[in-house]
Amino acid sequence: MRSRFLRSAFRWARQAAGPARRHVSCGSLPLEELFARGGPLRTFLERQVGSEVQLQVRRPELVAVAKLLNEKEQELQETGHLLHDENEDLRKLAESEITSCQKEIAQLKHQIILLLVPSEETDESDLILEVTAGVGGQEAMLFTSEIFDMYQQYAAFKGWHFETLEYFPSEIGGLRHASASIGGSEAYKHMKFEGGVHRVQRVPKTEKQGRIHTSTMTVAILPQPTEINLVINPKDLRIDTKRASGAGGQHVNTTDSAVRIVHLPTGRRKRMRRKRSIP
Could you list the residue ranges forming a coiled coil in this record (predicted)? Predict the structure, then answer.
């Protein structure tokens, strides 16, 4: 049961993450069914209440959000009784409180789903964004330009560093291909599900007869590799030097003219030769 709702949660998070959020269902299970009384996710959260101390050590954010969700649902249930009150002003106030409480509950449910998705080692990494126009001609290039501008504005909203690396515009203001470097807190975590083919159906600016066209563009999200601290034990290296041989010359038999380094554990070799002495 747990693996079932986790798979559904992962599908939902993949569709809902990133700047282009949409109203979607959780794969095979709708979001409402996951949180229904007696449902898989609700059962899982209720079981964790008994082991709250252990859960706080592993997932303190999940504990806090789950407790807040229970409080908001209790508040919603208590406020619902006021809808039948004889005082009209009190009923209007209750309706306003219920609307606000329902929005907060929906946000808390979404947050719980995202917290349940396993994190990756690259979630904290910076990333390389690449956008390329696909099928649709000039309209696809205009769509690509809009998507690239959207990601740039989203990066500014999140306070991330955005640096354009490549930019190849089209003749009418569209974009054939572009790439950018994005760096900031959890940048790859929020953007990793944006990769893939994006499609738009609309009346293009280049269309004079009002017909709807379908255009596509592709997005690639690549995590930037982090620096690696590589330590090589000098005992694992064998360094061989060679000298020129032959008659005459002040450098013959006196100057190292070639060096070969062998990494003994792996057998990898590197050789370098110069005419003069190697510093």
Answer: 69-111
Tokens of 152: 């740039």
CA end-to-end span of the chain, whole Å? 66
Burial class of residue 14, CB neighbours in 10 A (0-12, 13-18, 19+): middle
Domain containing 95 equals 2-118
- Please tell me whether residue 239 adopts helix, strand or coil conformation: strand
Same domain for 65 and 130, yes or no, is no
Mean pLDDT of 144-160: 95
**Residue 127 CB contacts under 8 Å (≥ 6 apart), including other chains:** 181, 182, 183, 187, 188, 191, 192, 221, 222, 223, 224
Residue 197 three-state SS: strand
3-state secondary structure of 83: helix
- CA–CA distance, 227 with 166 (Å, rounded to integer): 24
9 within a domain of the structure (yes/no): yes
| Residue type, position 145, single letter | S
Number of structural domains found in the chain = 3
Kindly report the length of the chain.
Answer: 279
- For the whole model, what pTM was predicted? 0.54
> What's the pLDDT score for residue 48?
64
